[in-house]
Amino acid sequence: MLSRTSQFSDYPMTIKPAAALLFDIDGTTADTDPLHLEAFNRTFAPYGEHF
Asked: Model-level pTM?
């Protein structure tokens, strides 16, 4: 496991492998709906699905 020290404290910060992947699909952070739509269509096109 990797660890490093934060510049704001003397306590080590442990870096863990990603346990989840988050999507901001409601546009709160960025307007990414068109990109998600394109990604979904490319992913599911081989299965005959289109959104």
From this structure: 0.44
Q: What is the arithmetic mean of pLDDT over 21-39?
A: 77
Buried (b) or exposed (e) across 14-51, using 16+ Cβ within 10 A? eeeeeeeeeeeeeeeeeeeeeeeeeeeeeeeeeeeeee
Q: How far is CA 17 from CA 3, 5, 20, 35, in A?
A: 12, 17, 9, 26
From the CA atom positions of the chain, what is the Rg in Å? 18
**Under a CB-based contact definition with an 8 Å cutoff, are residues 27 and 37 in contact?**
no
Domain residue extents for the chain? 19-51
